[in-house]
Structure formats: structure tokens, C-alpha cells
Amino acid sequence: MYEPRDEDAVASVIRDAANASKSLSIQGGASRRGLGHDVAGAPVSLTGLSGITLYEPGALTLVVRAGTPLKEIKAALAEEGQMLPFEPPCWAAILGNGAHAESTIGGVVATNASGPRRIHSGACRDSLIGVRFVDGAGRILKNGGRVMKNVTGYDLVKLMCGTHGTLGVLTEVSFKLLPKPESQATVSLTGLDNQQAVAAMSAALGSPYNVSGAAHVPSASDGQSRTCLRLEGLAQSVSYRAAELMRQLDPFGSPQLDTDVDAVSREWQSMGAADALATESGRDIWRISVKPTDGPRVAAALEGATVFFDWGGGLVWAAVDAGTDVRSRLAGIDGHATLFKADTDNRQRLGVFHPEDPAIARYSQRLKQEFDPSNILNRGRMG
Amino acid sequence: MEMPVPSGQIIARKSAILDRFLKVLPAEAVISEPAETRVYECDALSAYRCPPMAAVLPSSTEEVAAILRICHEEGVPVVPRGSGTSLAGGALPTADAVILGVSKLADVLETDYDNRYIRVQTGRTNLSVTGAVEQDDFFYAPDPSSQLACAIAGNIAMNSGGAHCLKYGVTTNNLLGVTMVTMAGEIIELGGAHLDAPGYDWLGVICGSEGQLGVVTEATLRILRKPEGARPVLIGYDSNETAGACVADIIRAGVLPVAIEFMDRPCIEACEAFAHAGYPQVEALLIVEVEGSEAEIQEQLSRIIEIANKHQPAELRESSSEEESALIWKGRKSAFGAMGQISDYICLDGTIPVSALPETLRRIGELSNQYGLKVANVFHAGDGNMHPLILFDANKPGDLEICEALGAEILKLCVEVGGCLSGEHGVGVEKRDLMTAQYTDDDLDIQMQVKDVLDPQWLLNPAKVFPLASSASRREATTRDTAARSDSASAAA
Ligand SMILES: Cc1cc2nc3c(=O)[nH]c(=O)nc-3n(C[C@H](O)[C@H](O)[C@H](O)COP(=O)(O)OP(=O)(O)OC[C@H]3O[C@@H](n4cnc5c(N)ncnc54)[C@H](O)[C@@H]3O)c2cc1C
């Protein structure tokens, strides 16, 4: 296992590997192990590149080394009453990597992992404002920077986000931040079917009340369905909006209000982690992105699946019998389906990532050749 | 400013190339008379002009593809154009280039309130996107000051921002999908009404690529429900330092206004003389705007005013009516026009870390004295995006050159304090040769390698973004190919 301690050391590991045409398997905290295809190659751990480089609360910006544990970042931001806007979800449990596995920020960026607030404040890629990385030829590169607005040259920051370590090894990442909301509340409805739930969520998200989370659990712990809408912000504002939203949602049942900050934040953390499917051991887990009103169609097409909706219905998490070809059942519905968790054989057979349109796949392949000419970085991770 | 020498071989084949255009486009969509191509000789960076060989105005994605296939085969450079409001020379042609304008592609294709998106053709202007949904209380958030004129096509190419992007983000954060035609004439779809990419985030790279990677013909944009109300407060301080500290404190306090605008004394005076907005005579003026219901506005404003008062403002004026709000904004919104009344000017667009605000303003003042040209500052303070306006006299020989040299120094200063050369206007030709101040050769090379993938012949808007010297070998390889092709063509004939 290579354990470089700084960026130069990362570059030299990569140069040596490129010269020897030896492939490398890049890892952070290994909390997302099993996401993507298995990679053969000498492991390189980034946990040696750790620590906050620059934190400016007055500018809402953070620069941090890629191997820094997410926990450490959250704690530092919390001290200043700030947070990462995209609410990085914890997927260690659902991926079966044990609750103790600690995400690094590099792993979060490499997977573009975004939680329920994605619909309101954007994905990880939207908060990311700068990257430093080493490409497959061992060149140390940067793009973007530490300021929120930057259109100087091509935006490779967005490109690097979600590439699962296949285009370069991230060494440092910068984010714009948000103030942590002083108050949070969940307005919930019970007993709605999927169609009604998405209609209620669409109404809420189309209201002026700044809904920052919209999820639907068809079968919550009491066996009834639960549709949740989150409001965040200054205290008076949250209570005003909650009252208005409840009035608006009255036609869908009797909305309930929960204002216990701890309970509310635990519940939304659990939504991000897709805990609703955590007990589905032995089944495959899919993460499907469609336009929100297509969410119920997805569920209907996957009869027998246990599903859960986030992002107003646009993100469908589904647990299905191992080996089910979900994509063929969803033919005709625009969007994409990722085989989030399955054994190696099924991942191999079905493909983890949604096949790209042939033209785009060709460009993606050429791009990989430009960034990683010897094809040594996480070879085959994305298929 | 230097542009590549136009290819004589291409210009010599002009009539044959036009004949081919006329096979795929109606005659009125092909413009080649010198009197008419003049319209396309520049964008809003009007100091630089050059009429193109021809301009074409296709009416569909298929027509765009047909034109691009011809230009690709003929080795003709293509410069995409929206409304031509770029301040960076992004749409500036060369004499051997074809301007491909998307202004005839202006339809709304689909509006979906349940899923909160609108699909439009990209020649549609920014403001008329909101115009198509505002009767239902929705809006498209990115609001560049040029929104009456600029097209979504240019907004995507430049990743444009606006006054309200502190809360709503810039174009890339509000763009869900595009239909794009590559230089080879291939039509591809990226993204759509759903979120996030299945593989590499091509959409993220296309947005902000300044018309160098493909011609975008359709876009799926996120639309939002209008807030219940909005209100600004005007705060004046006796020094830039204090105003800067107040901005940082507001941000730190956990209230996130939708906009924080900053004007310094020269700018305040010019705006006041022009718009009579009743601005106080102070060193620095902040306009802070918040949104929401009446109660929410009150809650946010009271916190902001409390913070502002700690810094002993020389003036603090809370708007108490629609009219007062409009007046507060009127001065700011007329800033560029006001400056234009006083003098010729160029508008810069660097970003700095908010913490470096006082230092940067002080050093801009020093540079201004050193070069003997006045600089007025107006900018989006919440995100550090500065618009220093350098005043000069276009009729005075040599003044433009001094102005540009001062501009370059100010932009390098932005990079030095931790910021960047362009916050929202893009690089174009204007900042092309300064790119080495921010990026190493390798940093530039990896960007050019992305263009190699989508446009290996470097025909699409080739002389932009990268220093000419850095892109020379790639561009010249094409010129050699073209020369070889036309040699063999004439040999065959
Ligand atoms: C008074 C004034 C105020 C401004 N205020 C702001 C502001 O607040 N914020 C801001 O961000 N900008 C501002 N701008 C700059 C400018 O309006 C923006 O850059 C705008 O997005 C340009 O749009 P356009 O349609 O005019 O593009 P054009 O000027 O026509 O082109 C701009 C670039 O886009 C490329 N392009 C055009 N069409 C396509 C296409 N179909 N496919 C691919 N590439 C294409 C061109 O090649 C060029 O590189 C301002 C400009 C002016 C004159």
C-alpha cells in the first residue's frame, strides 16, 4: 500500500506506476468501497494528505486536503455555525462497510455524493469551487480556486467531481459553504400513495417557502407511508413558512409539524443514508435519477422492490432481488440508474453505471486517454 | 491585441463554401455582403473589430449540424454567437471565419411546473425565459445586468452570473441539460429533466467553455417559484475597510442575503449625478437585499441593521416602499450607463476573496494613481466578484493602451490576493494572454486537451481563452491540414 504524505509524493507514485504500466487503486477512508467496479492494482491511500489548508468563515470558503476525514471538516465548520451545503450522505452502512468506516472529503467529491438538500442547494459539484489533482501522467494540476465566482478557463472542477478517481487523484479541494440553519422543521403527511406523495412534494417545491428536503418513505416503521418536507432558516421564518406550507398541503391530508431540531436533523441524515433500505440484505440496491413525476412510474415498473424517494421523487432508491436488470424494466423512462450495491458478479454482468449514449461514451473514453494515457488510475472502476 | 493571420486559402474558396451553405440554408439565412457582415464584426468589447467571411443564421438544430459539417469538411473556423453582448470578445470573428448565430432559435419548447424546468432554444434572451413563466409566478434565477439582450446561448458559454447569485448560483448551477452540436456536426444530448450525470459531468465542462467545445442549441433550465417579496437596505460608510468588514460580518452571522452590492466613492458620485437616486456622499455604499414574506424580511433586515450599526455607518436607509426600493437599485443598475456618460471606460471582472477586499481596493487606488487613470469600483461583494471600471479617453492616442495595461495589473492583483481573472464575463480574447498569471503551462494544457477531444482540428472559436502562443501548435496543425487539403483539391482540379 502506498501512503503518500504530500502532493509531490502522490505525483511520484503515479509517475513510477505510469512508467511501469502498473495500475493503481485509489482510496480515501474506504467507506464507499464496493461503489463502482472492483479495481485491481496497488492500493494508494490518500489519508496521509489530511488537514484544513484555509478556512475563511467571513468568505464562506474552505480549502482542505483530499484525505481529510469528513467528520473533522464537519466539526470545524460547526464551530463557526457553517456547513457543506450539499449535505454529504453517509453511505458506509448501506454499502456494508461498517459504521466505523470514515469518509474522506476526497471520496465524497470523487463520488459526487449529495444528500437531500441537493434539490435546494445543489450537488457536491455545485459547492465545489476548486481542485488540485495529479493526472495519470503524474502532472500536478489545478483548476478553479478558492473564490465562489470563477469562469477563468474551462470548468474542470465539475468534471473531476464524480469521476471516481479515473481521471486524476484529487489532492486538495475547495468549497463554498452555507451558514448552518438556526432552525429546522419537518412538515409531514401520512398515508399517501406514491403518486399523491409526489404531487404533494411538487406542490411544496413549487411554493415560495424554500423547501430544502422532500422525501417519501412508502412504508415507514409503523407500516404507513410518510412524506416529509423540510424547512430551514431563521427561527421566525421557519415557523411562518411551516404554517403556510401546512395550509397549502391541507388537501393532501393532515400535515404534522416536527420542530425538534435533533429529531429533524437525525431524520434527514437517515434519508441521505437511505436507511429505509438498510435492512434489505441480500438484495441489490439501485439509485435511480429521473424527473420527479416519473418517480412513481419507476416504482410501478419495479414491482416487488422496496423503494424510497428523495429529491421530491426524482431520486428513487430501490432494493430488488439480486441480479434483476432494473434498466431494462425502466426502458422508456428518461434518466439513469446506478447499481449502487451488488456482488461483484452482478455488478460485472449488469454494469454499475448507466451506459452512456454511444457518441458520449466515445468522447468519455478519449477524455480518459488524455487524462490517464497509461490507463493506470482506477482502471475499470466506471466500467 | 493579436489575432491569428486569416487563412488566404479559405478566403479564396469563399464562393464555393457559400454555395454549399446555400444548399442547406435558405438564402436569407446566409449573409456574406460586406455591408451586412459588418453587423457581426464585434461584440460588446467593441475596441476590437473584424468582419467575418460570412454569417449564417440557422433555424433548427439540424441546420446547425449541416453547417458545421460543411465547415468541418472545408476546414473553416466557426465562431458561435448569441446576442453579441460578451465583454470579453468571445464572439469576435476573424476574416476567414463564419459566424454561426443562434438568434433565430428562440422558442420555448416545454414548460413543466411540477418538475420545475423549462426547455428553450438557446437564442432566446435571458429575460424572456423568465418572461415565459412569470405569469405563473416562476422565474429563471441567473440575472446578468445585460439580461434584456443576452441570450441563453451566451449565458451557457460564459457561465454568466448576476446580482442574485449569492443565493441562487450562476448559470451552471441552474442548467439541467443541453442539446449540442459538435464541430463535426454530431448532435448530442447531455442531461435533461433529471439530476446529475450518469458518467463524466460533460454538462459541467460545456457550461463556461466559451463556444469552443460545441454549439449549444437547446437548454433545459431550472425554474423557481418567485419569493413573496424582496427589500434592499442602503448602508454608507466612511471607509472601504469598514464596509468590507461589515460584509464579512453579515456573511458570518448566518443571514444570507440574496445580494450584497458595493460601490466606492467615484462610482457613487457618477451614479448619483446620472440617476439621482439620493445616494449619500460617503466613501463606500452597500446595498443589501433580502427576500421572503414581510415577517421574514423584517427578521433578516433587523439582524443586518444590527450588524451594520456596530460599524457606525454614516448612513443607513431601509426602504419603506416599492418606490424607495426601486430608487435604491436604480443608482446601482445604472452604474455602467452613468460611467458611460462621463467617460469611455473598460469594465474589468476579477474575483477576490472577500477578506482581501480592503487591501485590494487600496492597491487599485495606488495603481490608478501610478497610471494616471481614474478607477471606479462597483461589485458583487458577497462573492468577491469585482467590476473595476477604468476611465479613459478613446480619442486620446495611447490612452486605450495605458488603460489596458492598468487593467492587466488589476487582474494580476486579483490573482495575487487569491482570486481569479474572471468571475463572470469569461476570458475571450480580453484576458487570454493573462491566463499564465493564474495557470501553469500544464494547467492550460489539460484544458486544451479537453478541446482536443471534442474539436481535434481546433476549428471552433479557436483563438480564444488560451494564450495564442500556448494554442499555436494545435491551431497551426489545422492550418497545415487545410493548406494540404486545398493543394490536393487544386491538384485534382
Ligand atoms: C451592459 C452589460 C452588462 C453585463 N452584465 C453582465 C452580468 O451582470 N453578468 C455576466 O455574467 N455577464 C454580463 N455581461 C456580459 C454578457 O452579457 C454575458 O457574457 C452574456 O452571457 C453573453 O451572451 P450573448 O448571448 O450576448 O453571447 P455572445 O456575446 O454572442 O457570445 C458570448 C460567447 O458565447 C459563445 N456562444 C454564443 N452562442 C453559442 C452557442 N450557441 N453555443 C456555444 N457557444 C456560444 C460565443 O462564441 C462567445 O464566446 C454584460 C454585458 C454588458 C454589455
Brief descriptors of the model:
heterodimer; A: 383 residues; alpha+beta; B: 493 residues; Uridine Diphospho-n-acetylenolpyruvylglucosamine Reductase, domain 2; Uridine Diphospho-n-acetylenolpyruvylglucosamine Reductase, domain 3; 4 domains; seven-stranded antiparallel beta sheet; binds flavin-adenine dinucleotide
What does this structure look like?
- The complex is a heterodimer of chains A (383) and B (493).
- With 383 residues, chain A is α+β, with helices and mostly antiparallel strands.
- Chain A has helices at residues 7-19, 70-79, 105-110, 118-121, 124-127, 156-160, 194-205, 235-249, 261-272, 295-301, 326-329, 344-350, 358-371; strands spanning 24-27, 42-45, 52-56, 61-65, 82-83, 128-134, 140-144, 169-176, 178-179, 183-190, 211-217, 226-233, 256-258, 284-289, 306-310, 315-320, 336-341.
- In chain A, the strands form 5 sheets. Chain A has a 5-stranded antiparallel β-sheet. A 4-stranded antiparallel β-sheet of chain A has the order 11-12-10-13, sandwiched between helices. A 4-stranded antiparallel β-sheet of chain A has the order 15-16-14-17, with helices on one face.
- Chain A is globular.
- The model of chain A has no long low-confidence stretch (mean pLDDT 95).
- Chain B has 4 domains: 8-101, Uridine Diphospho-n-acetylenolpyruvylglucosamine Reductase, domain 2 (2-Layer Sandwich), CATH 3.30.43.10; 108-225, Uridine Diphospho-n-acetylenolpyruvylglucosamine Reductase, domain 3 (2-Layer Sandwich); 230-430, Vanillyl-alcohol Oxidase, Chain A, domain 3 (3-Layer(aba) Sandwich); 437-492, no CATH class.
- The longest helix of chain B is centred in the C-terminal third of the chain and has 25 residues, at 468-492.
- In chain B, a hairpin with a 4-residue loop joins β17 (375-380) and β18.
- With 493 residues, chain B is α+β, with helices and mostly antiparallel strands.
- At the A-B interface, β7, α6, β9, α7 and α8 of A face β9, α8, α9, α11 and α17 of B.
- The complex binds flavin-adenine dinucleotide (FAD).
